[in-house]
Specification:
The complex is a heterodimer of chains A (about 325) and B (about 180). Chain A is mainly β and about 325 residues long. Chain A has 1 helix and 23 strands. In chain A, the strands form 2 sheets. In chain A, strands 1, 2, 3, 4, 5, 6, 7, 8, 9, 10, 11, 12 and 13 form a 13-stranded antiparallel beta sheet that branches. In chain A, strands 14, 15, 16, 17, 18, 19, 20, 21, 22 and 23 form a 10-stranded mixed beta sheet that branches. Chain A starts with 19 loop residues before the first strand and ends with a strand. In chain B, about 55% of the residues lie in helices and about 15% in strands. Chain B is elongated. Classes of the chains: A mainly beta (about 325), B alpha+beta (about 180).
């Protein structure tokens, strides 16, 4: 049975602890309204260093293109961090003791975002668990890509009916500093016929040097994997105004990053002997998360693109077409 | 009684002191940018004059009616709150007159560079983050969100009217 992963904090004496990064990420997909919700709790820097920071973000795309939500930044001393949980005053993500469920809570009514959610995995095994070189260090990635989401979600004053909504969770951890010449492209899409598609690859900040991609498609409980030479991930970029940028203090010192070149459409093709598909994702709205390294000067920019998508696939010789919603992260 | 600084003078001194303690090279950069010049700053009804004298920051309160000589910068607490919470961009604050900077081009650029140094350092200096949180605790966060809604609606209405005008005068292709 799938278990949610735990945080991987450094031990005292770890010479690389200053570069420590670790986070729990959760997406909820609401195809009927076209909304994508993200909740992320992250750790930056050695936990015993007073400069190290805990960051919590909750954002939901809205039908009018706006993003509802906010960010909380705190010192470790003002947070509760355990290997299975991160608690800030207004945001938290916690894995249950047995690892079978994940709880996420957001209490930011002033930002129009309130949530009390429980996520359960729907696959018998985790989708992915790997590590790779990343800048001066490395990055780990484990994903639980298909979740059933229950609980309560209130966005912009509106109670959102979850109706057994689908979700995605991953855990990233490793050692690098924001500002290094490293980035990534990552997307998760939830479509009709109980299909989830996930894609990711590491890049440099200019997105010239792209690492081999990881792509898999899940239908019901069946996982279709693809090797890098079976995958084509491409996009058309254009200057795009990001609607919300958080935290505001960092947005203020990077005004030139407000309208970066971002993918307007993303095309993902994959072709194996038993599965073939083409996914077209169209960006509807973009938000930007700015991450400044607390240990030394440098920043990373995570552009969250939410929108609708279409799929044509042949799985085990059966043709299907589906539509849905998704999110694509374009990091600089 | 709270120890939190309240007047603009107190905020400025607290910010600079925290920066000088942890990143003295950046405090030195600020002094170099200020170049011994007297600047005036306004936050709502708080007015101050500040300058570095022999590398020491001196901040003096001004009367509310005092004439503001150049260079000077002024804004209000609502704008600072909206900026910190990500409900307003600096470009919007300046273009919509929520932040006013006056002086020669060099003076205005120096003020911007000083603010940039402070904000950049705030991501690494806990004391600066505490000051930001203390500032936010004195203001509400509901109003910036509502105000942003109103500004967005107003901007969209203006864009619609501009589009209608251009359409009427046949200066653009009609929208399908």
């Amino acid at each position: 049975m799938t278990r949610f992963d735990t945080l991987r904090p450094p031990v005292i004496g770890d010479p690389t602890a200053a570069a420590y990064k670790d986070w729990f990420h959760l997406n909820i997909f609401l195809p009927e309204s076209g909304r994508v919700v993200l909740i992320n709790l992250s750790l930056h820097g050695a936990p015993w260093d007073s400069r190290a920071r805990v960051v919590g973000v909750a954002l939901a795309s809205a039908a009018d293109g706006d993003w509802i939500g906010g960010v909380e930044v705190a010192a470790f001393a003002n947070s509760t961090v355990e290997t299975q949980a991160i608690f800030l005053s207004t945001l938290s993500i916690a894995v249950t003791r047995d690892g079978s469920a994940l709880h996420a809570r957001v209490d930011r009514p002033e930002d129009g975002f309130e949530a009390d959610l429980v996520a359960h995995p729907l696959l018998p095994a985790a989708g992915l668990d790997l590590t790779a070189e990343f800048g001066s260090g490395w990055i780990g990635w484990s994903a639980v890509p298909v979740l059933s989401i229950s609980g309560s979600l209130k966005i912009d004053g509106e109670e959102i009916a979850l109706n057994d909504a689908r979700g995605y969770h991953d855990h990233n951890w490793g050692r690098w500093f924001w500002g290094e010449d490293v980035a990534w492209e990552w997307g998760a899409w939830v479509l009709g016929d109980d299909i989830t598609i996930v894609a990711a690859r590491g890049t440099d900040k200019a997105h010239f040097n792209r690492q081999p991609p990881h792509v898999f498609l899940v239908q019901d409980r069946r996982v279709y994997g693809f090797t890098p030479n079976q995958i084509a991930l491409s996009y058309q970029g254009a200057p795009t105004r990001t609607v919300r940028r958080l935290p505001g203090s960092l947005a203020a010192i990077y005004p030139d990053r407000r309208s970066p070149d971002l993918p307007q459409t993303v095309t993902l093709r994959a072709d194996s002997p038993i599965a073939r598909f083409e996914l077209e994702f169209e960006t509807g709205t973009a938000a930007q998360l700015l991450l400044s390294d607390p240990m030394r000067p440098g920043a990373g920019f995570i552009n969250e693109l939410a929108g609708r998508c279409k799929l044509v696939a042949t799985l085990d010789q059966g043709l299907l077409r589906a539509e849905g919603v998704g999110v694509f992260e374009y990091v600089e | 009684m709270s120890n939190s600084p309240r007047h603009l003078r107190d905020w400025i001194i607290a910010l600079y002191t925290a920066l000088e303690e942890v990143e003295p090279h950046r405090a030195r950069a600020i002094r170099k940018l200020a170049n011994g010049q007297i600047s005036r700053m306004v936050l709502d009804g708080d007015r101050v004059a500040l300058r570095f004298h022999k590398d020491v920051l001196r901040v003096t309160r001004l009367r509310a009616s005092a004439n503001l000589k150049n260079p000077n910068g002024s804004t209000d607490r609502q704008t600072v709150t909206a900026l910190l919470l990500g409900y307003m961009e600096v470009s919007e604050a300046i273009s919509q007159d929520y932040i006013r900077l006056r002086g020669t081009a060099d003076e205005v650029m120096a003020i911007c560079a000083i603010i940039e140094i402070l904000v950049d350092a705030s991501t690494r200096i806990p004391a600066l983050q505490k000051l930001a949180n203390a500032f936010l605790a004195t203001t509400g966060s509901e109003a910036p969100r509502t105000d942003r809604r109103k500004r967005t609606a107003k901007a969209r209405a203006i864009a619609r009217r501009e589009r209608a005008l251009l359409d009427r005068e046949r200066l653009v292709n009609p929208i399908d």
